[in-house]
Amino acid sequence: xxxxxxxxxxxxxxxxxxxxxxxxxxxxxxxxxxxxxxxxxxxxxxxxxxxxxxxxxxxxxxxxxxxxxxxxxxxxxxxxxxxxxxxxxxxxxxxxxxxxxxxxxxxxxxxxxxxxxxxxxxxxxxxxxxxxxxxxxxxxxxxxxxxxxxxxxxxxxxxxxxxx
Length: 164
Description:
By secondary structure, the chain is an alpha/beta fold. The protein has a single domain, classed as Cytidine Deaminase, domain 2, CATH 3.40.140.10. It is 20% helix and 37% strand. It is built from 3 helices and 9 strands. The strands form 2 sheets. It has a 7-stranded mixed β-barrel with strand order 3-5-4-6-7-8-9. A hairpin with a 4-residue loop joins strand 4 and strand 5. The chain is globular, with a radius of gyration of 15 Å. The N and C termini lie close together (9 Å). 32% of the residues are buried. The N terminus is likely disordered. It comes from Natrialba magadii (strain ATCC 43099 / DSM 3394 / CCM 3739 / CIP 104546 / IAM 13178 / JCM 8861 / NBRC 102185 / NCIMB 2190 / MS3) (Natronobacterium magadii). Pfam families: Prok-JAB (PF14464). InterPro entries: JAB_dom_prok (IPR028090), JAMM/MPN+_dom (IPR000555), Metalloprotease_DSAMP (IPR053551), MPN (IPR037518), VirAsm_ModProt (IPR051929). It is an enzyme of class 3 (hydrolase).
């Protein structure tokens, strides 16, 4: 797996990350499913929900739930249908899993959050995995709400290590 650094260069998933960074554990098989979903959905953005065991600083993905992108402009935005999202949450709960986070693609953009992603993020401490197809890279970010970033309004994304 390749992930994108803050400078845009591509690094191996285990490259020189700080141990105090938040961490997302994704088995290779689930990461491959997400990447296949991304390739199959191109040129539109695809999206889905990640289930497993959640912790504010280290979560483990145990399942992924591909969802339909119902955004008005699916080539540049993603939106999970609220009813489908609720159904996925109920399936997660029935399986004894928690909501670990979400994933989507940037078919022609970097594997890091866009301004639109920042504006739309609402799940504190959850992971937001972004797959870029051009160039290919996988990145993950934790959404930290305003309370978690010194009382600022809104919030910000924090880089997250991905390990398998």
